């Protein structure tokens, strides 16, 4: 868990694009050298648990309902969703190197039809038609950005609300905020 200064978390380089470009550059090199997909944030078992929950607990049409993974990184959540039979998948990340790794991982898993694109969720032009928005760590990274994280969190919340269909599902995994804090952050939406 990240330290706090009042209501906010302590800023960190983990909240910057430069950090993630560096991390994904290393992971790209590792993938080319060893076939390693890189870090699976919060662990592979947690990813499978969340995906199984999505597949079994939510009322979704696996063929047509659109799912977006915000901050998809290496795309392993998208790989797991595809393995569960979901067909209308999109991954976005603001790191070009993360997107490059995601494309390689998706191709390596024979999933070239998963849509993947570079997109900063804070300045996005995404469509307004996702039944599921999934985030595993992006809100956390935004929360520790060194430059005005509170304003960035508010912009994130507005944009998530904008792309999510009415009656849709927002699934967020966080290691920095408690459930109560997250409910308070998202209370107006």
Automatic annotation (TrEMBL):
It is an enzyme of class 2 (transferase). Its EC number is 2.1.1.-. It is found in: Cytoplasm. InterPro entries: Efm4/METTL10, Methyltranfer_dom, SAM-dependent_MTases_sf. Its main location: cytoplasm. Residues 62-187 form the Methyltransferase domain. The keyword Cytoplasm applies. GO terms for biological process: methylation. Gene3D superfamilies: Vaccinia Virus protein VP39. One of its GO terms (molecular function) is protein-lysine N-methyltransferase activity. Keywords: Cytoplasm, Methyltransferase, S-adenosyl-L-methionine, Transferase. One of its GO terms (cellular component) is cytoplasm. S-adenosyl-L-methionine-dependent protein-lysine N-methyltransferase that methylates elongation factor 1-alpha. Belongs to the class I-like SAM-binding methyltransferase superfamily. EFM4 family. This is Protein-lysine N-methyltransferase ALC60_12581. It comes from Mycetomoellerius zeteki.
